[in-house]
Write a structure and sequence with these properties.
Chain lengths: ~525, ~450
C-alpha cells in the first residue's frame, strides 16, 4: 500500500455513495483490479483491525447491589415448583393461577422468599394479575423491590406493602379485625411518623390499619390531618382502614366523607356507616325502610318502595340508576338497599318473631324477594346467626344466591354458619338434579378445605355424573371447584376413584376430569409439603 | 432446605436440558415419581459415571425397560417413542437427580445392553480403520471438479461485490430479498455453501442496521475470494480456514484422524438457531488445562430432536479433535471418558474482559472471518447504560450485550453482585449463555 491508510469513516462514506460517482479514491492500492474491489480490500483490513482492536468500555456505572434478604429462601424443590408454575408447562392457565396464589400464600405464611431466578416471571405474573401483587411484594422480598426499581413495568410493586404482617390488614376489608384473639402488642401498633410521611400507599394504609388496632381515635386523627392533601386513590384506600375497630367516634368523619369529591370514597363511607350501629345514617335508612315497609290497620304488611330517590337518599348511597344486573327494577334495588342498612332490631316493633312474620307473608306484589335479600344483607352485617338460619330455611332462599353488585346475599349468611352446618346444606343439595347451579355457588362458599364428609359426598357425586349420559360436564364443573376446595390429603382417594373408572369397561367422556383432579391434588400435596 | 449434591449427580436443570422439546420435559416430569416405576436403581458414583435403569408401566401389559449410560450419556428404552431421549429416560434421570434412586447391581437386561453397545462401538472403530478411499484417482478427479466450480462461483461473486460498491451501499436497503438470494443461489450451485449462507445473510445487514455492518460483510467476502485465489500459497492452517469459510466439506473421519486433545472440558452453554430448513445447535466448551475453546455443532431438521449429549454446566473428561484451521475452534468429541458434575465450573478458570478481548484478537489474526468467540468472564456485574446492558468486570472494563437482550434472570440472580458468566462475543455484542453464582449454575 503506497498511500496512507484512510479512516474507516472515509471508506464508509465513499462506499455509501459508490465509486462510480466518487471516482477512484486516492487510497486504493494500485494492485487492485478496479477501484471498487480496492475499496473492499482496504475496508476488509480496517474492519478486521477494528474488531481485533476493540477495547472495553470504561464509563459504565456499577449498579447499587440489592440489600441482603432478611428472610430465608424457600427450599430448592419448592423453588422448582414455582418455576414450573410460572413457565406455564403444567395444567391450564386458571389452575396455574390458583396454584401460584396458593404457593405464594404458603410461602408468605412461612416467612419465606422466592428464589431470585423466579422473580422476573413472578413480577410479570403480578403485573398481569392485580390480585397477586400484594403476595408478590411479600414473597419477592428485597430482591423483587430492587428489580422493580429498575424496570418501569414492574413499578406496581413499589406501591405494595412488603411486610407479611401488613398485607392481610389492607386486603381484607370486610372481616372485622377486633375479633382477633390476642390484643396486639404496643410495639406492633406504634405510630411511625417517618413511614407515614415517606412510605408508599400500601405501607401507609397498613400503618393506619395497625394503629387502628391499638388506638382507633388517634389513628383517625392522623388520617384527618393528612386527608385534604391526599389524592382520591389514597383517600379510598385509607378510609377503608376505619373498618378496623369501627366505632361511634368515626361517625362524624364518615358523615363528612359522604360529601367527598370521589365516588369511591363516598362508597366506602356508605359501607362503613351501614355497619356502624346507632349511627345517624342507620337511623335515616331505618326511617325510609319503615315508610316503605309498614303495617296496615289489620296488622298486615304493606310494601311500597320509594318511587324515586331525592338528593338526601343519593347522598346516603342510593344510586338514582342502580342498574338491573340481577333482573330487578330500580325500586326493588332501593328497597333492598334500605332494608340492608336498617338495624334488624327495627323489625321487632312489627311482630314478636319478626323473621317468621316478614318471610312468611304471601308475595302479592312481587317485593318479597328483595325484602328478603335486604334482610339477609342486614343479618350478614350484624352477624346474626339466628336470622341467618331462618333466612336460609325460607322457601324462596334460592333468590339469595343471585348476586347484587357482585355479592350474593347468601354468602354473608353461610359465612355465619358453623362449617358443619354449612356443609350439611351443601350435601343436601348435591344430589338434587335441579339445583346444580346452586350447589356450585354453595360449594364455592364453603371454606377450603372442605370437611372430609363433604369431600366424600362431592366425589361420590362426581363419579355418578361421569357415568351418566350427557351430564359429564357437571362432573367437570364440580372437579374444577374441588381442585381449589378439596383437601390435598384426599389425593389418594381421588386417584383410586379415577383408576376404578379407567378400569371400568366403559369409556366415559369426562374420565379425564377426575384424573386431572387427582393430579392437581397430588401437586398441591407436594407443594404444601415442600413449603412446610 | 438442605441440599446434598454428590459430585457425580446431575442437577434437575441439567437433566431437563437434555429434553428434545418442552412437551418431553413435561411428560418426563409427570413420570418422575417412584409410584410409576419398579426394579429401579443406579450404579457408579464419584468419578465413575455408571448408569440408571428401571421398569416403567406403560399402556401395554409389558413394562418399558429404560436405562441410561451416564458416561456419554446414551439412552435405551423399549417404548415406541421416536423422541430421544424419551420421556421415560428423562423421568429416570430426574428421579436420579433428585436422589430418589438406590445404588444397586444392574439387572441382566441392562448388562446385556451395555455389552452389546460396547461391541458396536468396537465394530465401528474397526470399520473406520479399514475404510479408505476406494479409488484415489476418482477421488482426485471429484476434488478437482469441485475446486473448478467453486473458483467459477467465487469469481462471479467478486464481480458482484464490486458492483455493489460501484453503485453505492446507500441504496442497498431498497433491494428485495431476490437481489441477495439469487447470488446466494448461484454460490450454492457452485458448491460454496458457507459463502452462500453469508451472502444470504447480507439481506439482514442491508436493512435496519448501520451501513458499517454491510460494508464489513462485503469486505470480508472480498477477502475470502482473494484468499481462495491464493489458496496454494497460504500456510496450511490459513488455507484450511479459507476452505472452511468457503464451504469445502471436511469429513468426520478426517477430523477424527487428527491428534486428539484430552482435557476436562467445561460445557459453557449452548445456542440453538433456526437457519433455513435446519436447526443448528452450537455447544461451546472450554478446556481446564488447555484453556482452549471448542465449538461442537449439531444439526437437525425442524421438529426433530437435536443431539443433547453435552449438558451445559457439566465438565466432561474427553478427547476432542479439532477441524483444521488457523484458529481451530470447531471440534468433535471423539471419546468421552466420563462426566464430573458438580454445579460449579470444575476449576475451569475464567478471565477478565481485557484478557478475553486479547484472546479474541489473537484468534482473529489467524481467522479474520471469525464472528463468534466464547468467553468465560469472572466477577462481572450486569449494568445498564443508555438503555444498553453491559457486563463489567472487577477492573471496570465493560462489554455490551446484544441490544435485543434484557438479561433479567441474570440481574435477578446476581442482585448486583459479581458472577461468572459464559457468553459468546460477537461483533454486535455478547450473547449470554450461562452464569454461576457461589458455584451454582444458572441457565440464561
Amino acid at each position: 500500500m503506497t498511500t496512507a491508510t484512510p479512516a474507516w469513516t472515509e471508506v464508509m462514506s465513499t462506499a455509501l455513495v459508490g465509486t462510480d460517482r466518487t471516482g477512484p479514491p486516492t487510497w486504493v492500492p494500485p494492485t487492485a483490479p478496479d477501484p471498487a474491489s480496492g475499496l473492499l480490500e482496504v475496508a476488509a483490513l480496517l474492519a478486521v483491525s477494528r474488531r481485533a482492536g476493540r477495547t472495553p468500555e470504561r464509563e459504565v456505572a456499577r449498579p447499587e447491589p440489592a440489600a441482603d434478604e432478611a428472610r430465608p429462601t424457600v427450599g430448592k424443590a419448592a423453588g422448582n415448583r414455582l418455576t414450573r408454575l410460572l413457565d406455564g408447562n403444567v395444567f391450564d392457565a386458571d389452575i396455574r393461577g390458583e396454584l401460584i396464589r396458593e404457593w405464594l400464600g404458603l410461602a408468605a405464611g412461612r416467612g419465606l422468599v422466592a428464589p431470585p431466578q423466579s422473580l422476573p416471571a413472578l413480577l410479570d405474573a403480578g403485573r398481569a394479575s392485580r390480585e397477586l401483587r400484594s403476595l408478590v411484594a411479600v414473597v419477592g422480598g428485597n430482591r423483587a423491590r430492587w428489580l422493580a426499581e429498575q424496570r418501569p413495568s414492574w413499578g406496581y410493586l413499589l406501591e405494595e406493602a412488603d411486610d407479611p404482617d401488613e398485607v392481610d390488614l389492607t386486603e381484607e376489608f370486610d372481616h372485622p379485625y377486633e375479633e382477633t384473639a390476642a390484643p396486639p402488642s404496643a410495639a406492633a401498633v406504634a405510630w411511625d411518623e417517618t413511614r407515614w410521611q415517606e412510605g408508599n400507599a400500601g405501607t401507609r394504609a397498613a400503618l393506619l390499619a395497625r394503629a387502628r388496632r391499638g388506638d382507633p381515635d388517634t389513628a383517625r386523627e392522623h388520617l384527618i390531618a393528612a386527608w385534604s392533601k391526599e389524592p382520591a386513590a389514597n383517600r379510598e384506600r385509607f378510609i377503608a382502614t376505619l373498618a378496623v375497630r369501627l366505632g361511634p367516634g368515626d361517625e362524624e368523619f364518615l358523615e363528612k366523607a359522604l360529601d367527598d369529591r370521589a365516588k369511591a370514597v363516598r362508597q366506602q363511607a356508605v359501607r362503613l356507616l351501614a355497619r356502624l350501629s346507632g349511627s345517624a345514617y342507620q337511623e335515616r335508612m331505618a326511617q325510609r325502610a319503615r315508610a316503605a315497609v309498614r303495617l296496615d290497620d289489620s296488622g298486615g304488611l304493606i310494601i311500597e318502595p320509594p318511587a324515586e330517590v331525592d338528593p338526601a337518599m343519593v347522598r346516603d348511597g342510593l344510586s338514582a340508576d342502580p342498574g338491573n344486573g340481577a333482573g330487578y327494577g330500580k325500586r326493588a334495588w332501593w328497597l333492598e338497599a334500605l332494608v340492608a342498612a336498617t338495624p334488624l332490631s327495627t323489625w321487632r316493633d312489627y311482630a314478636p318473631d319478626p323473621a317468621t312474620f316478614l318471610l312468611s307473608r304471601p308475595d302479592a306484589d312481587g317485593w318479597a324477594e328483595n325484602l328478603m335479600r335486604g334482610l339477609a344483607r342486614a343479618a350478614a352485617r350484624e352477624r346474626d346467626v339466628e336470622w341467618a338460619r331462618q333466612l336460609l330455611a325460607a322457601p324462596s332462599a334460592k333468590a339469595l344466591l343471585r348476586p347484587s353488585y357482585g355479592v350474593r346475599p347468601a354468602e354473608g349468611l353461610y359465612e355465619l354458619l358453623p362449617p358443619a352446618e354449612l356443609s350439611e346444606h351443601a350435601r343436601d343439595l348435591l344430589t338434587d338434579d335441579n339445583a346444580s347451579q346452586q350447589v356450585y355457588q354453595l360449594l364455592m362458599m364453603c371454606p377450603a378445605p372442605w370437611p372430609a364428609d363433604l369431600g366424600t359426598a362431592v366425589l361420590d357425586r362426581v363419579v355418578v355424573l361421569i357415568t351418566r349420559q350427557r351430564q359429564g360436564y357437571r362432573a367437570d364443573a364440580l372437579c374444577q371447584l374441588a381442585i381449589r376446595k378439596l383437601s390435598p390429603s384426599a389425593a389418594a382417594e381421588v386417584a383410586a376413584r379415577a383408576a376404578a373408572l379407567r378400569n371400568d369397561e366403559t369409556q366415559y367422556t369426562y374420565e379425564r376430569a377426575i384424573e386431572r383432579l387427582a393430579e392437581v391434588l397430588y401437586f398441591r400435596q407436594k407443594m404444601i409439603e415442600e413449603l412446610a | 432446605m438442605s441440599e446434598v449434591v454428590t459430585d457425580s449427580r446431575w442437577s434437575t436443570e441439567q437433566v431437563l436440558a437434555l429434553a428434545p422439546d418442552a412437551s418431553s420435559q413435561k411428560a418426563g416430569r409427570g413420570l418422575a415419581t417412584l409410584q410409576k416405576w419398579h426394579d429401579i436403581g443406579h450404579d457408579g458414583g464419584g468419578e465413575q459415571p455408571g448408569g440408571v435403569w428401571g421398569l416403567c408401566k406403560g399402556s401395554g401389559s409389558k413394562p418399558y425397560q429404560t436405562c441410561v449410560d451416564l458416561a456419554e450419556p446414551a439412552y435405551r428404552c423399549s417404548c415406541p417413542s421416536r423422541k430421544f431421549p424419551c420421556k421415560h429416560a428423562l423421568a429416570l434421570l430426574l428421579l436420579w437427580a433428585d436422589g430418589k434412586l438406590a445404588a444397586g447391581e444392574p439387572p441382566e437386561w441392562v448388562r446385556e445392553w451395555r455389552d452389546s453397545r460396547a461391541a458396536r462401538v468396537e465394530r465401528a472403530k474397526t470399520r473406520q480403520a479399514n475404510a479408505g478411499p476406494a479409488d484415489p484417482a476418482a477421488a482426485a478427479r471429484t476434488a478437482k471438479r469441485r475446486a473448478d466450480r467453486v473458483t467459477a462461483g467465487l469469481d462471479e461473486l467478486d464481480t458482484w461485490l464490486a458492483d455493489q460498491v460501484r453503485a453505492g451501499l446507500a441504496g442497498a436497503g431498497q433491494h428485495g430479498y431476490k437481489h441477495w438470494d439469487s447470488m446466494a443461489a448461484r454460490l450454492v450451485d457452485a458448491q460454496a455453501s458457507t459463502a452462500a449462507s453469508t451472502v444470504k445473510r447480507l439481506a439482514g445487514f442491508a436493512v435496519g442496521q448501520p451501513a458499517d455492518a454491510l460494508l464489513t460483510e462485503l469486505a470480508l467476502l472480498r477477502m475470502l475470494v482473494a484468499g481462495h485465489r491464493r489458496l496454494d500459497d497460504l500456510p496450511p492452517g490459513l488455507a484450511a480456514t479459507v476452505r472452511q469459510h468457503v464451504g469445502y466439506p471436511t469429513s468426520t473421519e478426517e477430523v477424527l484422524a487428527t491428534p486428539a486433545t484430552r482435557d476436562r472440558w467445561l460445557v459453557l452453554g449452548r445456542q440453538d438457531e433456526a437457519a433455513d430448513k435446519l436447526t443448528v445447535r452450537r455447544v461451546w466448551l472450554r478446556g481446564r488445562q488447555t484453556a482452549r475453546p471448542a465449538l461442537v455443532l449439531a444439526f437437525a431438521a425442524p421438529g426433530q430432536a437435536l443431539n443433547a449429549d453435552l449438558v451445559p454446566g457439566t465438565v466432561i473428561d474427553a478427547d476432542v479433535c479439532f477441524y483444521p484451521g488457523g484458529a481451530p475452534l470447531r471440534a468433535l468429541v471423539s471419546q468421552q471418558h466420563g462426566v464430573t458434575t458438580g454445579s460449579g465450573t470444575g476449576d475451569v478458570s475464567g478471565s477478565t474482559v481485557a484478557a478475553a478481548l486479547d484472546d479474541h484478537a489473537a484468534a482473529l489474526a489467524a481467522d479474520p472471518w471469525l464472528d463468534r468467540w466464547p468467553v468465560l468472564l469472572d466477577d462481572v456485574v450486569v449494568a445498564v447504560a443508555d438503555g444498553r446492558w453491559h457486563v463489567i468486570d472487577a477492573a471496570g472494563d465493560a462489554l455490551p450485550l446484544q441490544s435485543s437482550v434484557e438479561p433479567w434472570v441474570l440481574v435477578a440472580v446476581a442482585g448486583g453482585r459479581p458472577v461468572r458468566v459464559a457468553a459468546v462475543w460477537t461483533p454486535t455484542g455478547l450473547q449470554l449463555m450461562t452464569a454461576w453464582l457461589d458455584g451454582k449454575m444458572v441457565a440464561l
